Amino acid sequence: MIEIDATATAILSALLALWLASAVAAIFIGLRRDVVARSHAAEIERLTALLAATPGAPMLVAPDGRIHAEDRFAAILGVREVPASLDALSNMETGGLAAADAEALRAEIEGIRSTGRPFIRALHLAGTHRVLMAEGRIAPRALGEGLLIWLFDQSEAMGEIRLLSDEAERISEALDSCLALIEAAPFPMWHRGPDLRLALVNSAYVNAVEGVSAEQVVTRGIELIDGSGDAPSPSAARAYESGRVSTQIVPVTLGGQRKMMRIVDVPMGAHGVAGYAVDVQELEAIRAELGSFQSAQRDLFDHLSAGVAQFTADRSLVFYNQNFLRLFSIRPEWLRDAPEFDRVLERMRDAQSLPEVRDFPGWKNDRRAWFNAVSAIEENWTLPAGRHVRVVAQPLPNGGLLLLFEDRTEQIQLTSARDTLLRVRAATFDNLFEAIGVFAADGRLTLWNNRFAEMWALEEADLAQNMRVDAMVDKVAARLLDPSRAQKIRDLVRIATVDRQRERGRLSLADGRHFDFAVVPLPDGNALFTLLDITASRGIEEALRERADALEEADRLKTAFVANMSYELRVPLTSIQGFTEMLAGGYAGELPESAGEYVEAVLASVARLASLIEDVLDLTQGAAGQLPLTAELVDVEQLLRDAVEAAGPAAMDRPITLQVELPTQLGTIRGDERRLRQILDHLLENAILYTPPGGKVRLTAEGDEDWVSWRVADTGRGMDSDQQARIFDAYPRIDGTAEDGSRSIGIGLPLTRQLVEAHGGSITLDSEPGEGTVVIIRLPRTVPEDTSF
Q1: Element (H, E) at 247
Q2: How far is Cα of residue 537 from the mean position of the Cα atoms in its chain?
Q3: How far apart are the C-alpha atoms of 138 and 63, rounded to whole Å?
Q4: How far is CA 496 from the centre of its chain?
């Protein structure tokens, strides 16, 4: 028996204990590793299942181009086995990538190797419509060197994408059409986003707000409605919040014009609000016009002399005028309750305002049928107390009825009176001395009297047929003294009926009778033709005409006689004046003092007589239009002062005061200076002659660029209206007595008027008895062209 010492035993025990501990630790470690291995195996199994469940298949491409992949990769490619290399991807017997896509895949792989950037690319399988999506990147380090490429079958997705693309294209085309339609819309349209601010507007909107472009309008948020400013439209806000269409009619300024627009905002859910604006100005105007028309129509009905009642489709009274109340004696309080048609008829019957009929219910039912009539119905009612009413029932388009009641009682009475007046007129026409015929606008003879028919010898048959004026002309031509003037009758009727003008004249018949005719247009468009027999007065007229001719000839002979006598008288008067001047000059010896006075008196009388003869000659020459005149420039102021100086001695002899008031510059006029001086001499001579001693004669003058005038005023006895009417008569006359008792031949003022008018001027006289006389001469500075010198 082997004995082991204690040391060895201890060592052995220690070793055994160490081995046991190592064994236990190894068992523990092994168990732990087994748990970890199982966990890793489960994780690997889970990851493998997860990898197998992915829609794609991975492919590891080695640096040398070899491919490492599972069978699923071959199934996605549509081949029997996994290709060995990239070159084999497109060299399959069946399936595989299209050659172009395989080359593109190799280019993408080379790109990853050089840049390291991943790629995504669509690949097409050869001979099929299948599409694969390849995503490539550098392989994780755990997989070794190479590239990791995933292939996903996107055929169904691409089909969906194509369908969605087609749908999107269709929607895009529809949207483009819709946008084009919106753009082409003639009224403003817009779209607001969820913030209710403008996002889209059409051209009509841009034009309406006078914007530059749609972008500018949207950017600046220019609102269509005045006064909205930057704030969103309240109408759009209501539509967006309520989810219901909002409509409002507001005034809008478009192109500088104020119009009424209907603004419509349509909610689009989360996409905002769409809207459009329609011009309802014309509609509102028509609506207002319709209301005005209805109001005006009722106002018109109220002013009609006829009674008016309107019923609705349910036969209720909705309107009546005052004449309806008056005509049928119905109280307005009862009508305000809108009574039914039958009740109104019954109330009218109670007021004895309906015709008396035996079967009133049946009569009322017949009138109720008026509501269903197609056209207007007219009746004449004979009411008690002799009243006559014309009734017009007009069915209305809305099923109602409009009744018009016209009181024709007075009209019927007037018709009866008219018939009586027509009979009286016919009797009056037949007994008138004038021949009377009335022609219608178409030229037919509609009315005549017996004298008219007798004058033209018209037959009863022709008159009964209302013969035309053309046929009448043919019949009456032979009765005229000049048959060619028969057409004048037709022309006269046409002038009166068509041109509406009056004509007068004379007709002579072949039997020696003469007629004054008048054609007068009548208010009804007809023409009145009257003929008055003036045969007797025509003879008297011819006798008077012959007498007038004789008087004119006598007047011409008288004028010629006066002119000749005036000329003949100047010859002996000149001799008398010459011999008298010789006596006064002492050629016959020294004369006694008394003889000298006689000679002076003779010379004064000769001068006076010569002046009168000269005036008479001038007056007769002026009346014959043969007054000689010369044309020269005359200083007006000098002319007036010379005339006043010449009249001074006569004024001092009276004695009277002769006043002169002349402006500093009166200029010149063109005329005959001798005749102008003659005008002044006559005016001053008459004024001095008819002014009593102590009186005053005043001469004033004024002028402008075109005219010169002077006034001669005296404080004499004046003239009444009869004397003023005769003062400018063209023939000499004994003029009454002057203030000193002398008498004057009144040819001064008639001659003065002739001389003034010969110079193109005018003369006026203003006088009152006891107030003196003022004579005003007005002359042009240049003589008119039609004045002959």
Answers
A1: strand 246-254
A2: 59
A3: 11
A4: 35
Instruction: Report residue 217 as tokens.
Output: 């309008």
Cβ(641)–Cβ(664) under 8 Å? no
Peptide linkage before 655 cis (omega within 30 of 0)? yes
Q: What is the band of 696 on the pLDDT scale with cuts at 50, 70, 90?
A: very high
Residue 66: exposure state from Cβ atoms within 10 A (0-12, 13-18, ≥19): middle
Which residue in this structure is represented by tokens 């609506």? 287
User: What stretch of H or E contains 469?
Assistant: helix 469-476
DSSP label at 227? T
pLDDT of residue 253: 72
CA distance 487 to 618: 53
What the block records as the tokens of 293 is: 């028309």
Question: Could you give the C-alpha distances from 665 to 668, 701, 778, in angstroms and in order?
Answer: 9, 10, 17
**What tokens were used for 565?**
């006598």
How many angstroms separate the CA atoms of 746 and 726, rounded?
10
Residue 1 pLDDT > 50: no
CA distance to 307, 603, 638, per residue, from 322 (Å): 7, 101, 86
Distances (CA, A) of 766 to 270, 644, 711: 102, 21, 11
Contact 665, 730 (CB under 8 A): no
Cα separation, 588 vs 578, in Å, equals: 13
Q: What is the enclosing helix (H) or strand (E) of 347?
A: helix 341-350
Q: Please give the distance of CA 580 from its chain centroid, rounded to a whole number.
A: 90
| Cα 467 to Cα 445, 460, 464, distances in angstroms | 6, 10, 8
292 near 308, Cβ under 8 Å? no
Closest CA to 201 of 241, 157, 246, 233: 233
- Does this model's pTM top 0.70? My answer is no
The single-letter code of the amino acid at 588 is A
| pLDDT number for residue 788 | 46
Task: Give mean pLDDT, residues 469-483.
Answer: 83
pLDDT (tens digit per residue) in 49-76: 666 666 677 888 888 778 877 777 777 7
- Directed axis angle between helix 636-653 and helix 673-689, to 10°? 30
Class of domain 432-533: alpha beta
DSSP code at position 479: G
State how beta strands 657-661 and 762-768 pair: unpaired
CA distances from 105 to 100, 111, 130 (A): 9, 10, 16
**Which CATH number, 3.30.450.20, 3.40.50.360, 3.40.50.1000, 1.10.3470.10, labels domain 286-413?**
3.30.450.20
CATH class of residue range 54-153: alpha beta
Nearest to 436 by CA among 418, 454, 459: 454
- H-assigned helices in 116-151: none
Q: Average pLDDT over the chain, rounded to whole?
A: 78
DSSP secondary structure of 680-716: HHHHHHHHHHTS-TT-EEEEEEEE-SSEEEEEEEE-S
CA distances from 409 to 251, 306, 386 (A): 54, 12, 8
Cα–Cα–Cα angle for 445, 450, 455, rounded to 5 degrees: 80
What residue type is assigned to position 340 of the chain? E
pLDDT at residue 560, rounded to an integer: 61
Q: Where in the chain is the domain with CATH 3.30.565.10?
A: 627-780
Percentage, residues of the chain above pLDDT 70: 80
CATH architecture, domain defined by 627-780: 2-Layer Sandwich (3.30)
Helix (H, G, I), strand (E, B) or coil at 587: coil
CATH number listed for the domain at residues 185-279 = 3.30.450.20
- Here the tokens at position 744 are 């004057």
Q: How far is CA 328 from CA 302, 316, 365, 383, in A?
A: 15, 18, 20, 11
144/200: higher pLDDT: 200
> Whole-angstrom Cα distance, residue 779 to residue 773?
20
